[in-house]
Design brief:
alpha/beta, 434 Repressor (Amino-terminal Domain), Rossmann fold, 2 domains, 6-stranded parallel β-sheet, two-stranded antiparallel ribbon, 48% helix
Amino acid sequence: MNNSFAEMLRQRRMEKGLSQQALAEKLYVDRSSVASWETGRRVPDATLIARISEQLGVNVADLLLANEKSVFPPQVVMLDDEKIILSGSMPILEKALPDATIMGFTRPTELLQFARNNPIFLAFLDIEMGQHSGLDVCKSLLKLNPRTNVVFLTAYMEYSFDAWETGACGFLLKPLTEEAVRKQLSLLRYPQLSISFEKVETI
């Protein structure tokens, strides 16, 4: 797995004579965070990239470019409490994102647990889910990773006004169509230069 950012981070850290623990202390993060960045399991947000730039003497633009060029699967997820809707949407997302790893979830808790261990590139969230709201899930996802692209899914247009206040970058009416998904991909707030994924799974 070629990960330009992970390689650059590890090389510059070693050139500075810093251990992972030492760098973590300078960045005010846990050592496990540095370890996960260097293995390509996770990526830091924009604030941390600025700190890394300062501590390692690397240009911010170079770090951001390396981050975008990193080849490791960006995760695409969909959350809907109706299994029929979720199952029917998976093939559509697979066609629109043929190189992506797509995970489906029916419970917000499972999605958020997954997000804590995986950098999510794009999340499709149902808004109305009984006791839960996709609006709240969006806020939680963006706290974990502010660069997550969130697109809301609903059958009710009136939700669109509330949706825009959460920091999401898109809104689609159900049922999903491949054309609508592809159009939304061109409007993402944080597009990715390289998306190279394979499997589609439903939990």
